[in-house]
Design goal:
The chain is of the alpha/beta class. It has helices at residues 6-10, 13-18, 73-84, 197-205, 222-230, 242-245, 255-267, 273-287; strands at 30-32, 36-39, 42-47, 50-57, 93-99, 101-102, 114-115, 118-121, 131-135, 141-144, 149-151, 167-171, 178-182, 189-194, 210-215, 234-239. Strand 2 (36-39) and strand 3 form a beta hairpin.
């Protein structure tokens, strides 16, 4: 993937190969057995007279593509896909597997053309084969029906905006059909709302998922905030103080009030009186022209 170090991942290749696990990355790949033939472009597998050809393209970095100044990234990726797809055969099941950011999977509400440093690519560069299996986007989706291209999605949620049910996609090489298999047993990412400390702790104590607490009650003490954050079910706490949500005229606030508001926003707690007094004293000296040093 785009966040992985392919060279480091490939270090385990010799050990993985002993257990019939193939890691495609920077290391040289060569396997030749009665049923399996593999090289850096992918592998072919025979079983019960049926042949499966899988072309594999790890996330194509500019370095891996031999990218030079003036090259077009999408054209280089397209050339690489065409090269590794040469292992496809007419009387076999052909599958393309890669880690790519494809057009049609981007956020429609933004003009995003990169995601996690991966550049957006057009669907036309995908090869013509029986099944295109893609990784990168965490939500399961169909990228192209004509190319039979799919993102299966991540095995678990990685953000609180991800509310999709996780699944595996099983491809039947006999009839070329797809079947969704739900994944169970993982923890979901759930947003909960609480207006008291006790309510927040009650939610966390009964939770079986990762919880993002949105607190809307009276200001919490630093001890209460720390207690919530230490809870094993708490992934994040967001303070939405009702008093602060009513927009104030900042010009009407003095320096002491502005500092207290800033502290509450940053720390999710009231500023200690001692700290407020120290700030107020320093502010007074500045206003008197005595705060030029330190």
């Amino acid at each position: 993937g785009n966040h992985d170090d392919s060279l480091r991942l490939s270090v385990a290749s010799p050990l993985a190969k002993r257990h019939n696990i193939l890691l495609f990355g920077d290391s040289y790949m060569s396997v030749n057995t009665q049923n399996l033939n593999a090289d850096n472009s992918g592998f072919s597998f025979m079983k019960d007279g049926e042949k499966l050809n899988v072309a594999v393209l790890p996330y194509p970095t500019e370095r891996a593509l031999g990218f030079t100044y003036g090259d077009n990234y999408e054209e280089k990726v397209a050339e690489k896909i065409q090269e590794i797809s040469e292992r496809f055969e007419e009387n076999a099941t052909n599958v393309f597997v890669s880690h790519l950011f494809m057009a049609g999977s981007e956020d429609k509400t933004s003009d995003e053309r990169e995601l996690g440093s991966a550049k957006l690519l057009s669907r036309e560069i995908l090869p013509d084969c029986d099944f295109v299996l893609l990784g990168h986007v965490h939500k399961p989706m169909v990228v192209s029906r004509s190319k039979n291209a799919h993102y299966s999605g991540s095995l678990m949620p990685y953000s609180f905006d991800d509310t999709t049910d996780k699944r595996l996609v099983m491809f039947d090489t006999c009839d070329k059909s797809l079947k969704d298999i739900p994944i169970r047993g993982y923890k979901k990412c759930v947003r909960e709302f609480a207006d008291t400390y006790d309510k927040a702790m009650e939610i966390l104590d009964s939770a079986n998922d990762w919880i993002e607490i949105h607190y809307t009650g009276e200001p919490l003490t630093m001890t209460e905030v720390a207690s919530i954050r230490r809870h094993c079910a708490c992934a994040k706490i967001v303070v939405e103080n009702r008093e602060v949500s009513v927009k104030k005229d900042r010009k009407a606030l003095d320096g002491r009030e502005l500092f207290m508001e800033f502290y509450k926003k940053q720390k999710s707690a009231e500023a200690p009186d001692r700290l407020v007094n120290v700030f107020a004293d320093y502010l007074a000296k500045v206003e008197e022209g005595q705060g030029e040093t330190d």
